[in-house]
Amino acid sequence: MNPKRFHLAQANVARMRAPLDSAIMEGFRSQLDQINAIADGSPGFIWRLQTDEGNATAIRAYEDERVLFNMSVWESFEALHRYVYRSGHAAPLRSRRQWFEPLAGPILVLWWVPAGYIPSIEEAKARLAILKARGPTVEAFTFGDPFPPPGEPPVSPPEINADFCEWPTY
After folding, report:
1. For residues 9 and 112, is the Cβ–Cβ distance under 8 A?
2. What pLDDT does 154 receive?
3. Is-contact 102 168, C-beta < 8 A?
4. Which residues pair with 47 in a beta bridge?
5. Which H helix or E strand runs over 101?
């Protein structure tokens, strides 16, 4: 068995169209437990950011109360990709424009961490800033422009629907 030396961290941000407890957000809010359960049970899932009570939406990484912040760690790029685009997570992802406003800059960042390491919110925010400033690099990348774990050969981006990756330009 070849144990993995690196795991994939991901963070994403979204600005809600209204407060989480509003009627506008009901469709999103009603799916949270199911989507989190799918993540928790997905092959390759390691960890996700949440309070001691299991509430990820209560964590505020930014001053804006309507900005949700999500972070998780996965065994591999493939495991996270499978969860995001090939599980029950995909349908709410396609509907995100109902609940979330477009944001300027990247909304998702991926980066490699040593196996067993849990990144901080501050680290994730710094990775988003790197991605915004430099574009995809080994330090901060996206599903569309992936980088391999340190010491491994380059990877090709998987076939993904571009609609999932970026907000439209208005």
Report:
1. yes
2. 79
3. yes
4. 73
5. strand 100-101
